[in-house]
Amino acid sequence: MGKFSPKADDAAFHPGEQALQERLGIRDRMAELGARVIRDHMPEQHRELFTKLPMLVIGATDPSGRPWATLLTGSPGFIRSPDPYHLEVTASPLPSDPVIRHLGIGADIGVLGLEPETRRRNRMNAVVIDAEAGRLTMKVKQSFGNCPQYIQKRRHRHLGKMGGQVAVRSLQQFDAASIGLLQSTDSFFICSLFDDGGDQPNRGVDVSHRGGLPGFIRVDDDRTLTFPDYAGNRFFSTLGNILLNPLTGLLVIDYTGGSLLYLTGSTEILWDTPERERFSGAERLLRFRLEEALLVSHALPLRWEFIEYSPQLVNSVRNNQT
Fold it and tell me: Helices (DSSP H) in 237-310: which residue ranges?
């Protein structure tokens, strides 16, 4: 790709994000856009969305520095924003959660608020400023909205308690149950991180959503996955992190049974591989290699009713088949 030197006016994006934007010839345009839409606070519509949610997606690192994507759940209102710069969550970690119970003051954290019913989503990079039993308070570092594409529409219901006997399995390779969930899912969440030792706002942990039609995750072997990267907002928050640091965490939700599959490992970007033709609509591929997995059965007090697939996904498949 050649040597790349970031501009001072690209402050919204770190060098990994800038390098990918440069590769596509859009760095100047994205620098201008980033300055307008990436904020150090939450606009009112973001604050309002968080208060409506029964679930909050979290990205963080464990004591060994490994990234994980995870969840906090509660009745709508368990998340509140006392002002545009802070978010407070009142909820206890789910059984066998790999990271939230370890978070302390000063920890970097990625936050995603997603409402499947409306396909609204907002992202935030933040730092923990208070952590006590059942309560987490974070301060915004960067806040921005995401478009609704690739989100499947679902309607949630709250059970009020766990939906069955919780069972936890630690895995070093995929078993039949985890492979079944990976091959049947239509979405997952990915946690990545960037840390160059500085104190700029784009340093920290990020968590984002990935959607596709069932089968879009390919299980290559008992420790390797390949999945597509579709056209997005060109911020490259996830891919920019992976370019500089391959450590990643994935989370797959069983929307009908309430189980969770947590994965941590590393991811590489596959650019011009012929394999891309096997994934309809993919701009590039990502390959994940597992270090550790946790499969937690019946972990969630939430269930979702499927309504419809993302129109962007359906149209993309149709266009690539004609």
Answer: 237-244
Q: Of the candidates 236, 250, 264, which has an alpha carbon nearest to the alpha carbon of residue 71? A: 250
DSSP strand pairing (120-132 vs 167-171): unpaired
Confidence band, pLDDT 50/70/90 cuts, at residue 200: low
The set of long-range contacts for 160-164, using a CB threshold of 8 Å and a minimum separation of 24, is 160/301, 161/301, 162/95, 162/258, 162/298, 162/299, 162/300, 162/301, 163/257, 163/258, 163/298, 163/300, 163/301, 163/303, 164/258, 164/297, 164/298
pLDDT in tens, 46-95: 999 999 999 999 999 999 999 999 999 999 999 999 999 999 999 999 98
Those residues with Cβ within 8 angstroms of residue 184's Cβ, 6 or more apart along the chain or in another chain: 214, 215
The radius of gyration computed from the CA coordinates of the chain, to the nearest angstrom, equals 19
Residue type, 250: L
Domains, the chain, ranges and CATH? 12-321 (2.30.110.10)
What lies within 8 Å, CB to CB, of 192 at 6+ separation is 59, 67, 205, 206, 207, 208, 237, 238, 241, 242, 245, 247, 248, 267
Q: How far is CA 251 from the centre of its chain?
A: 8
pLDDT digit string, tens, across residues 224-276: 999 999 987 778 888 889 999 999 999 999 999 999 999 999 999 998 899 99
Q: How far apart are CA 144 and CA 122, in angstroms?
A: 6
Cα 180 from Cα 183, distance rounded (Å) = 5
Confidence (pLDDT) at 310: 93
Asked if 249 and 264 count as a contact pair (C-beta separation under 8 A), the reply is yes
B/e letters for 75-85, b = 16+ CB within 10 Å, e = fewer, are eeebbebeebb
DSSP symbol at 274:
G
Tally of CB atoms within 10 A around 64:
9
Nearby residues of 318 by Cβ (< 8 Å), 6 or more positions away: none
